[in-house]
Amino acid sequence: MDKGISKTACFAIVLLLTAIVAPGFGQQWAEDMFGERSHDFGMVARGAKIEHRFVVENVYEEDARIVSARSSCGCTTPKFSNKILKTWDKTEIVAVLDTRKFLGQKDATITVRFDLPFPAEVQLHVHAYIRSNVVIQPEAVLFSTVPQGTAVRQKLKISYAGRSDWAIDGVLTDNPSLAAHVVETRRSGGLVDYDLIVDLAADAPVGYIREYLLLVTNDPQPRASRVPVTVEGVVVPGASTEESEVFAITVRPDPLLLGVLEQGGSATRRLVLLGPKPFKVVSATCEDKRFTCGTSESSSERHLLPVTFTADEETGTINSKILITTDPGGKPVEAAVQVRVRAEETGAEEPDTEEPASEEPDDESSPAP
After folding, report:
1. At CB < 8 A and 24+ separation, what contacts does 23-26 make?
2. Hey, what domains does the chain have and what are their CATH numbers?
3. What are 192's strand-pairing partners?
4. What is the dihedral of CA 254, 266, 82, 280, to 10 degrees?
5. What is the pTM of this model?
6. 122 or 250, which is more confident?
């Protein structure tokens, strides 16, 4: 082998030859990026918003790219945002179950196809039984955007048709900021209605809420005895009522990871800024001048700011902070950023054809709960 071939090229050749000799291994590298590849929703109510998020993390130095995700059943729709995954980047394949058009046992296989660093397919399996006798209206508990310090209540209607003695015995949640109970509003023959009342506490921590409540019923079958109900929302810092109002902003993700670069390379990722009411981003500066951050003249409760890092000769892990000021004014927001720079590989007879990170920025850095 020519000594001029880079380490990256060597890795690529070895992995490609291994994939040819052992096709099973060719798929294994892609499967290893998934924490799980199967999910059973159990029995779910008709009309409920039901979805599951399969996390994908690139654990390799090579870029990974998702080309497509398709489902074997119209009952399940796969969605994803980031197509290009740099080292340690994460995305989610979201399996959304259609509980309005479909009933009964549903089994779907989602095929996720990659073309980088090599072609591969990973199959994800989703199982559910959509009940016709339990209906939820509206589809989920949606708190939207809630300023911290504000208690909020939402109410859903649960309807059942079947046994005259059917009942909801309680509601389970693992979130200490949520309290839920049911109130029976009708019982006539085999028709039963409940109001599901869900309270979000005023002291709920800042961040995203994305989880399930479980309705505990007296159904004799274990799989049917618990009915999931989706809860979603985001708690943002609340503005102070003092004269010198402090306008608090939530920053996601924290820290912002820009991946692994070679000397002289660059990468761009996006910060998500959330506020309790519309605001403008006046300035964004970093103590390390290799980081640059955009601003926004528009007024909104949500901003996406591009952050770019341009590497020089320094290698290793680089940590810094971006200082962001907003209008209306208040305490500046600090956003932690991190990037790792490795030594540029030399001696290759041909220039590296790998695209720089900045040419394929994320579609959107979606904030994680």
Report:
1. 26/118, 26/120
2. 7-132 (2.60.40.10), 140-236 (2.60.40.10), 250-359 (2.60.40.10)
3. 160, 187
4. 50
5. 0.61
6. 122
